[in-house]
TrEMBL record:
This is Putative membrane-associated Zn-dependent protease. SUPFAM superfamilies: PDZ domain-like. It comes from Deinococcus peraridilitoris (strain DSM 19664 / LMG 22246 / CIP 109416 / KR-200). Its cofactor is Zn(2+). Residues 114-165 form the PDZ domain. Keywords: Hydrolase, Membrane, Metalloprotease, Protease, Transmembrane, Transmembrane helix, Zinc. The lineage of its organism: Bacteria, Thermotogati, Deinococcota, Deinococci, Deinococcales. Pfam families: PDZ_6 (PF17820), Peptidase_M50 (PF02163).
Length: 368
């Protein structure tokens, strides 16, 4: 199998596991309250294999791009005349707390799985703390200016032109991690001095820089990113660190989703790449596979966390939107009509589908 084939297969495996675990949360919460589950499908589309167990028909479907559960009382029933009727039993017969428990369980299961995966990563690899005020050189291109200057892989740039790199700084009102100042410095002509730390010692690397050559942007020849501090921890500390990480990323994730909606409204297909679709994710998974199994585990944790947070957005059709409708009806002390609720959910589902199509088109635009 080619490298691309392996990347796609690994991506599909991650998606199937994340979706199965999500739907298992809904299934467990329903059964725990005595609500029946008609079917549980791993995959979508035509059914390949089916069997019955515990009152549920379990299915393995042809398209490994998702899954679903059919919970009694969530979908309308069909009368003998073919008319749709609002359900009154099962899920529909539960109070607001019971309904919210079923809806919340899917994202919660993804969240728990993300914490477990991160904890395993931290216990095996250590807790990594990014140091944005230090730029670590990850690679040096052969026969490059960087190699001529004596820069080596593992060097850490701690200051530029005699000024320490800050933890962060602002450009055009947008915050940036401090290590990006290396890029900014190399975008300007003139003498440069990098203070480089190597084996606990510091040295000055001075050079006269011309940012463009023959009309083309000139490259120093280094690959770099933020420096990192690695702390080896026991399992309990790894779990605690994973839980903190899962909470700390919420503002960034919400901001990324908000930016995605803004880009969709303005038809900005390029964007900043904070949210990627299937094509972009396959590439990320492929790179992670080359880096090692624990990098893949980390990506899997982030995908589960993203799935949890996305499903909790108050968009009709998503779990968060359904929870919002349950709360609205509880506050109004009267249910919405079946037609009203169905219209709201279908509208939200259409919006989500448009969003997914936009993300795919954005992936294609960035790829080409």
């Amino acid at each position: 199998m080619s490298g691309t084939g392996i990347s796609i297969a690994l991506w599909l495996l991650i998606i199937v596991v994340a979706t199965f675990w999500h739907e298992l949360g809904h299934y467990w919460a329903a059964r725990a309250q005595g609500v029946g589950v008609k079917s549980f499908s791993i995959g979508m589309g035509p059914i390949l294999v089916r069997w019955r167990s515990g009152g549920t028909e379990w299915r393995l479907s042809a398209l490994p791009i998702g899954g679903y559960v059919e919970i009694d009382g969530m979908a309308p029933t069909v009368s003998e005349r073919g008319e749709l009727r609002a359900p009154t039993t099962g899920y529909a017969g539960l109070g607001a707390p019971g309904k919210i428990a079923i809806l919340l369980a899917g994202p919660l299961f993804n969240w728990i799985l993300a914490i477990a995966l991160l904890a395993g990563n931290y216990a095996a690899q250590g807790v990594v703390t990014p140091l944005n005020d230090r730029a670590r050189v990850a690679s040096v291109a052969p026969n490059s200016e960087a190699q001529r200057l004596g820069l080596r892989e593992g060097d850490v740039i701690v200051a530029i032109n005699g000024r320490d790199i800050p933890e962060s700084y602002t450009v055009d009102g947008q915050p940036r991690p401090g290590f990006r100042q290396v890029q900014d410095a190399l975008a300007l002509d003139g003498p440069k001095t990098f203070t480089v730390e190597r084996d606990g010692r510091r040295r000055e690397v001075s050079f006269n820089w011309q940012a463009r050559e023959n009309g083309e942007r000139r490259l120093l020849g280094i690959g770099y990113g933020e420096d990192r501090k690695v702390e080896q921890v026991a399992v309990p500390a790894a779990i605690a660190a994973a839980a903190r990480t899962s909470v700390a990323v919420i503002p960034q994730a919400v901001g990324a989703f908000a930016g995605l909606f803004q880009r969709m409204l303005t038809l900005d297909l390029q964007g900043n790449g904070e949210v990627v679709g299937p094509i972009g994710t396959v590439g990320i998974v492929g790179q992670a596979a080359q880096a090692g199994v624990w990098t893949v585990v980390g990506i899997m944790a982030l995908i589960n966390l993203s799935l949890a947070l996305f499903n909790l957005l108050p968009i009709p059709g998503l779990d968060g939107g359904r929870i919002f409708l349950v709360l609205v009806q509880a506050l109004l002390r009267r249910p919405l009509t079946f037609q009203q609720e169905n219209f709201i959910n279908l509208t939200g589902f259409a919006l989500v589908m448009l969003l997914m199509l936009f993300v795919v088109f954005s992936d294609v635009a960035r790829f080409f």
